[in-house]
Design a protein that fits this description.
Distance between the termini of chain B: 105 Å
Order of helices and strands of chain A: HHHHHHEEHHHHHHH
Helix content of chain A: 55-70%
Distance between the termini of chain A: 38 Å
Radius of gyration of chain A: 25 Å
Strand order of the largest sheet of chain B: 1-2-3-4
Largest sheet of chain B: 4 strands, antiparallel
Structural class of chain A: mainly alpha
Largest interface: A-B, 75 and 69 residues
Structural class of chain B: alpha+beta
Shape of chain A: elongated
Number of strands of chain B: 14
Oligomer: heterodimer
Chain lengths: 313, 487
């Protein structure tokens, strides 16, 4: 997701042009963040996200969209400014624990989650004798509160993955799965034409449509959750899902017929059942890569797919 | 994983070849969840989210607390969302229904109050008229009071049944009534109202929402003995009812607006003179002692939507006997306005009563400028009347005092300024709704206006035209201070 190195001259020029305004707007003086330090932060952020071909005007526009006040506060905290820490704790400490409780849904786990993040924010690890704070990675693209929630959620997913792995092994042992014999009736393989037609139909969809289908059919998310993710009304998502399911079915049938299948044969392959279409969508939308941990470098075992089946009607 | 075929379940659980891809950082995911990413970055994040269940879960978990709380409390948000919409819709419908019913009930109460007020006044006036007229014509005593009472009952019932009672208050009965009133019932009600008001002739009820002008005395002879249900036969073909609108605080504003529109429409028909009607009126006038050789052209009236904005205003009209009348209840009852200073005590009392009411109503109400155009029609109809007393009015007034026979009236947009003119060049002007009148004698180079005034047209408070029966046209540009006689 990293963009190529941007035009450093354009970034420097844009930062210099907006530094005075943004430095004042961010209230850097109150939290002890020098103008030069803030300029370096702005340049770092712009360099991180903007492509090389962006012009100075585009860099300016990008800088003006940053939440510079929260960016300055986070970076001042990372730099060890006491006044910034006081302000940060006043504003976000309670929210941090509330968000952790909402994510973990259990008090002890939530406190554990929040304490762990709090330690990371303060910076327990050191590099070259300097304390490394997780707040140093905040870039002001979104709100600091939202960033804290996201970091908490990432940490929760990482912990869930680790816990789930252990639980899954225990469950497998309890269920005797590890001693299970091979399936005496091997599952019939799907028609390759059906697979290719389904893949082609899904590939023709936009990224948002595929994300909606994956969230709805694969993750079992509600329409309201998907709608909030995309910032639209849930009725919009409902219509979109219905429309996508219908159009996908038509496209898959058409794709199979183009490959020489008769319509009846294609419908039989598709089993003329919306649920089967959904299942095919699930298969095609399934995460192809093993999940990587958030901000972790060590390898972990693949997370078993968390699929909540959904009967549409 | 229920309802999933085995083959697909197996493919789900089968590990897929890994294609390592870094997750978007927390900043990008946060910006995506807050919908603050540019399209380019948003598409990149969406592309990743379409393949990465972990990031989708992170985004969902990181949704703001308030929305998540609402989500957690809702159980099945999608269904509740769909369910709540009809609830809202039905709630809106129910609220509208309740509001409508409330408004209708409120309006009905206002109308009932108005009807009660108006039904009380005529009985008192009727009693007064009987005492004042000890020896009325037999036909009038035998038939008209009965007709009047039945008409009061009818009018009340009709008013309760039909919210639009405009046509019952005033009407113009043209030679072809059906062309004017598409509903025969309206014509009937209008005629009956006129018959009722005309019953105690000479007591201020000589005409209803206007006044009837009889084309010939023979028609009057027919009228009195037959005040039966067929009121078309009662009212002669050339009968014209005209009134000048004013403001009445007793009538609901909406009803008044409807009345105004109906008045305008009716008078529009009346003002577009079918030539035959004018001819008949001309004949009638020639038969009378004060016949006018020429008629002033009646102006065309238009139903102006601005009239709907105004509330009920005092209405002015001229009775068949040439008496100036006004109504404070939207035309249900009419009171004579005696503008002579030296008059009998009864007239003075009546004038005082009318004056006080007119003052109150003029202060509260506002009349649209189109009211002046109505006065033109009033002037014309007054001219048509040509001061021909009906049989019943003659019977009710065995010895009418010498007074001005009014033929024209003009009401300004302020409703308080009225011009009234009639026989012998009598021209009166009031600025306070009839409390105080001033006699105006137009003169130009020593020439006085002596003819019968048959039309008064004031375009505003200063500019006016007075037409006389001897074809003189007098104009003023300074509210009657000076006059110019056109040749």
């Amino acid at each position: 997701m990293r963009a190529a190195k941007p035009n450093s001259a354009a970034v420097q020029s844009a930062v210099a042009a907006l530094l005075l305004e943004l430095h004042s707007k961010a209230g850097c003086e109150k939290i002890g963040l020098a103008r030069e330090s803030f300029a370096a932060i702005l340049s770092e952020v712009a360099t991180k996200y903007l492509p090389a071909e962006d012009t100075e005007a585009q860099v300016r526009t990008f800088l003006l969209t940053l939440r510079v006040e929260e960016l300055a506060l986070a970076r001042a905290c990372a730099a060890g400014q006491d006044s910034a820490w006081e302000l940060f704790l006043t504003r976000y400490r309670e929210k941090l624990y509330q968000s952790a409780l909402r994510i973990a849904r259990e008090d002890s786990a939530a406190r554990d989650l929040a304490d762990g993040l709090y330690a990371e924010l303060y910076g327990t690890a050191t590099r070259d004798g300097e304390r490394i704070s997780k707040l140093a990675s905040f870039t002001g693209r979104g709100s600091l509160e939202g960033w804290l929630r996201t970091v908490l959620a990432q940490e929760f997913v990482n912990r869930y993955r680790r816990t789930k792995r252990l639980v899954s092994l225990d469950e497998e042992s309890a269920e005797g799965a590890q001693f299970a014999t091979a399936d005496p009736e091997p599952l019939p393989s799907a028609d390759s034409r059906l697979e290719s037609a389904t893949d082609a139909a899904l590939a023709a969809l936009g990224s948002e449509d595929r994300m909606v289908l994956a969230a709805y059919y694969l993750d079992g998310r509600t329409l309201a959750e998907i709608a909030r993710m995309l910032g639209v009304h849930e009725s919009t998502i409902s219509r979109k899902v219905d429309k996508l399911a219908k159009s996908l079915r038509k496209k898959i049938l058409a794709g199979m017929m183009q490959q020489g299948m008769a319509r009846r044969q294609a419908e039989e392959a598709l089993e003329v059942d919306v649920r089967d279409l959904r299942v095919d969508i699930r298969r095609s939308l399934a995460q192809e890569s093993p999940p990587a941990t958030f901000s972790e470098k060590k390898d972990v075992l693949p997370l078993p797919q968390k699929v909540a089946p959904r009967a549409k009607s | 994983m229920q309802n999933v075929p085995k083959i697909v379940r197996a493919r789900f659980e089968r590990p897929t070849p890994a294609t390592a891809e870094p997750h978007p950082d927390a900043d990008l995911l946060t910006a995506f969840a807050e919908h603050s990413l540019a399209d380019r970055e948003r598409d990149q994040v969406l592309e990743h989210l379409a393949r990465c269940a972990d990031c989708r879960e992170v985004v969902v978990l990181a949704l703001p607390a308030t929305e998540a709380a609402a989500l957690a409390g809702s159980g099945s948000p999608a269904r509740i969302g769909w369910f709540s919409l009809p609830v809202l819709r039905w709630g809106v419908v129910a609220a509208l229904a309740v509001t409508s019913v409330g408004l209708l009930e409120y309006r009905q109460r206002l109308q009932e109050k108005t009807l009660v007020a108006t039904s009380l006044i005529p009985r008192e006036q009727l009693a007064g008229a009987r005492t004042e007229t000890p020896a009325p014509a037999p036909a009038a005593t035998a038939s008209q009071p009965v007709a009047g009472q039945t008409d009061v009952g009818k009018q009340t019932e009709m008013a309760k049944k039909a919210p639009s009672r405009a046509l019952s208050k005033l009407a113009v009965n043209m030679p072809a009534p059906n062309e004017i009133f598409p509903q025969p019932q309206s014509t009937h009600r209008s005629s009956s109202a006129g018959a009722f008001r005309g019953a105690p002739a000479g007591s201020g009820f000589a005409s209803g929402g206007g006044y009837g002008v009889k084309a010939a005395p023979a028609a009057n002879a027919k009228q009195n003995p037959t005040p039966g249900p067929d009121h078309r036969a009662v009212v002669p073909s050339a009968t014209t009812t005209v009134e000048v609108s004013g403001a009445s605080p007793l009538v609901a504003a909406q009803t008044s607006a409807q009345n105004q529109i109906q008045d305008q429409l009716i008078q529009n028909e009346a003002a577009e003179p079918s030539q035959s009607s004018s001819d008949r009126v001309g004949k009638a006038k020639s038969a009378s002692a004060q016949a006018s050789p020429a008629m002033a052209p009646a102006p065309l009236l238009r139903a102006d939507p601005t009239l709907m904005k105004g509330s009920a205003a005092p209405r002015w009209t001229i009775s068949a006997s040439g008496a100036l009348q006004h109504s404070l209840d939207g035309g249900k009852t009419w009171l004579d306005v005696n503008i002579l200073v030296d008059d009998s005590s009864a007239n003075l009392g009546r004038r005082a009563q009318a004056g006080v009411t007119a003052e109150a109503s003029s202060a509260a109400m506002e009349v649209q400028p189109e009211a002046q155009t109505e006065s033109k029609t009033a002037a014309k109809s007054a001219a048509r009347a040509s001061a021909m007393p009906t049989a019943k009015s003659a019977a009710a007034q065995p010895a009418p005092p010498p007074r001005t026979i009014f033929r024209a009236v003009s009401v300004s947009s302020k409703a308080s300024e009225v011009w009234a003119g009639g026989s012998g060049g009598a021209l009166y002007h009031t600025l306070d709704g009839g409390n105080r009148w001033a006699r105006v004698v137009p003169s130009d180079a020593g020439i006085l206006l002596t003819g019968d005034i048959i039309a008064i047209q004031f375009s505003d408070s200063r500019n006016g035209i007075v037409t006389t029966s001897n074809t003189e046209v007098w104009t003023t540009l300074d509210a009657g201070q000076t006059w110019h006689k056109q040749q």
